[in-house]
Amino acid sequence: MNVADQQAALDAVHDDPGDRPVMRARFEHNGSPRYMLYTIKRLGLDHDHGFHLDVQLVSDELEGGMETVEARLQEGEADLIDIDYISTARERSEGASIVAFHPYGRTVGGLVAPEDTDIEDLTDLPDHRIGVVRRLDKNWILTRAACREYHGFDPDEAATPVEAGSKVGLTRMLHDGEVDAVLQFWPIVPEITERGPYREVLPMADLVQRLSETDERLPISTFLTSESFFEAHPETVRGFKGAYRDVVDRLVSEDDHWEVVGEELMTYDDPAIVRAVRDGWRDMVVRDWDEARIDGMERLFDHLLDVAGPEALGVDRIPEGTFRPEVP
């Protein structure tokens, strides 16, 4: 489903902000946060928590090397986005005034290939063309780290990564046979595999847990805002955190919300795809965090840095003040 149709569904549940403070949310049209953002708006959970969430969907194209949502936040056109915390650390180390104030989830993807592929696991990647959104994408970084740690090779050298520039472009490359496999983001994997003839060879979430050496579900993506918004509008930030916890509780326990999401926001209204996305979202999402979980995220970063190196990550540290679990 294109951006305009999904935005129309969101606009239908956009009510008047009244005198409530506004938080401008800018999210990708094919990213999983749109499911919970739409449900927050449909149920009025933002107003229940004293603020107005203005949701606009954007493309997942790159702008100056950054994802579109990153560009919107850094240019002052957004107050709320989500990206992985490696990208957050990278942008903050380069001077971006952004902070991660709440977890979203284990938003990684999967290695997807044709059903008749000869790629059965990571050891089969050499001499194959592997599609990625970009080489600094977290899925490729995780793959490189796991291959170097457990199998003694770097797929950035032994295989051929092919950058698509967007998730849509990545799926097209797979369908057109331009690559042997792709590292696609998790919400799109069911749309590909349920319709065939493709299968998921390996979920990247398995690599997250193996590399982090913990059973605790670690968020890879977090919600971001600017430092100025965080400091100037603490009540609004707290309001979003409350609305998010509420919507997670509803989407985890109540199936009927997913039927509406499937009808309004998904390209395919196939019940099997909707159920697969629903179950994947529930397995991915992280409702809250604490210092122990943040420590786990930092340990995973350090492990990726040790294994893959700063060139692969694009950053050599998580700058101080990146994670802001306590709102002032």
TrEMBL record:
Domain SsuA/THI5-like residue range list: 64-246
Superkingdom in the source lineage: Archaea
InterPro entries associated with the record: SsuA/THI5
Gene3D superfamilies, per database record: Periplasmic binding protein-like II
Region Disordered, residue ranges: 1-21
Comp. bias (Basic and acidic residues): 12-21
SUPFAM superfamilies: Periplasmic binding protein-like II
Pfam families, A to Z: NMT1
UniProt protein name: ABC transporter substrate-binding protein
Organism expressing this protein natively: Halomarina ordinaria
